[in-house]
Fold each of these.
Amino acid sequence: EDQVTQSPEALRLQEGESSSLNCSYTVSGLRGLFWYRQDPGKGPEFLFTLYSAGEEKEKERLKATLTKKESFLHITAPKPEDSATYLCAVASGSARQLTFGSGTQLTVLP
Amino acid sequence: ETGVTQTPRHLVMGMTNKKSLKCEQHLGHNAMYWYKQSAKKPLELMFVYSLEERVENNSVPSRFSPECPNSSHLFLHLHTLQPEDSALYLCASSQGAIRGELFFGEGSRLTVL
């Protein structure tokens, strides 16, 4: 059974204080790892897809990286508008659906 | 209208009521999904439709009944719900049934009294 664990559950940063969110996974044959951002009262918004270890994707202040066991979402010099819950999900060869983690709630203070 | 649109955004219903949630996607995708999101829990997949055929049903109670009349519209019919069914119900679409790049609507917040 595929498993996804995100840490920390919540993270508070000062504006400009860089940090990383972690997504650890256990799957049988990774087909893809996906990052989403979810604002309060809204649906998740797709950010990145990573397919293989060593792959990196960037978008503005966000950079996602992937190893064989985990993915990191690095946030460089965050701003208050980066505050949101970040979700990680995996697709495996054995499962017909995505497995989501519980998310990391990020708060960036001005 | 663009993206994925869900109505209503908020719904309060009694345990004996019958209501429906509606989802419409304007992205030309061929797969649509219903997810349930409860506080502090991972997203739970309820149903998947690909090319209007249900391809996934994750042991969801029969008080939830999906309907997909065409590739752009998806409904979730609700009847005799329980208070524990209170949650955010999210509709999503994708190109291909098992793709991870899902496009979500803003959700319907359901409260069952």
Amino acid sequence: ETGVTQTPRHLVMGMTNKKSLKCEQHLGHNAMYWYKQSAKKPLELMFVYSLEERVENNSVPSRFSPECPNSSHLFLHLHTLQPEDSALYLCASSPRGSSYNSPLHFGNGTRLTVT
Amino acid sequence: AQKVTQAQTEISVVEKEDVTLDCVYETRDTTYYLFWYKQPPSGELVFLIRRNSFDEQNEISGRYSWNFQKSTSSFNFTITASQVVDSAVYFCALSDVKSGGGADGLTFGKGTHLIIQP
């Protein structure tokens, strides 16, 4: 069983819907990440949280809104998405302050389809 | 700026053949870390190896081996006697200290889809 759990595994939503992706890590890590994986593109870092504070926001549109209530949980709130937002959204965690040399631990991802 | 190039989009080999996945990276920093991850059809990325910029010693782990060449900025991955279970997408990734030091994530290549045919 992976130490990083993402729900739901699959999500289909209309452009006017509001939904949330959830990530939970059981590894005692202090840093959590959202990545977007689109077809034929490199994984794109979206957000980074370290000790529940956002430390990175890579020019992500405001229709994506992250939330990190504690070091074990990370959410990605979605609203008024576009079809091009359809992708696999991966959550990852690592020990704080050492992600540059520590491997990231990834969840299974949420496959999002925007219709 | 960091960049990771995996020129091979897809490789298909027959089981038991050896296969090498290429990775070329760019960074201006002298201290950096290189990673390989495997992404099976289930979706999660599985960590395979980490190598720091000061350690050019090649590594072997079972059927997997990695060749780190700073002179050519390459970190290639070889699977010997490939098996069907090796079929996956493999990602090379780079992290350097100057780009953030702390929790700033990794720069990934586009991945190589490896297909091992029985």
Amino acid sequence: KAGVTQTPRYLIKTRGQQVTLSCSPISGHRSVSWYQQTPGQGLQFLFEYFSETQRNKGNFPGRFSGRQFSNSRSEMNVSTLELGDSALYLCASSRGSYNEQFFGPGTRLTVL
Amino acid sequence: AQTVTQSQPEMSVQEAETVTLSCTYDTSESDYYLFWYKQPPSRQMILVIRQEAYKQQNATENRFSVNFQKAAKSFSLKISDSQLGDAAMYFCAYRSATSGTYKYIFGTGTRLKVLA
């Protein structure tokens, strides 16, 4: 059974640009959560999607948005990039919101 | 709001020895889940162990066990017979069991070094 995949694995952008990250969950998983991981802050919850609906959102500005498609694949978009957005963005999927989360390898975003 | 605190940024343990990683949390809820996740260098995060708050018995998974003290809001991870492959970042996480609240709250992590 294939695990959670994230593309791209590495990304370099400049300030002011926007970026879209993609996450493909494990087959059969309907819940997808996104996290931002930085050395100082640890993992910060961004949002969770279940059956194409955003169920919960963390404390991030509106520049961070996401969506989920009917096949449960999810995308995360960050507009008007800032230097502080440089981080590892992790996606995790689960069968349901209360099941164990399985993490992807992450997308390393560097903003110059 | 719930918080999770890992007060040990880094720990070291000799191979084959035992180490305990600390985690405390704050919540006003009575029903929740607690987790320990492991993130090896440049590798994916994986679940090590989970504990349901309503269960008094401490969870164990092979060499990994927890000491869950609900009243003290403490959830420490004990790794016995440490192996080189245990070297990783360890994250403690909290998740509410209340319907409608789905997000995980993670601590800042503890980097575990295993010395040969």
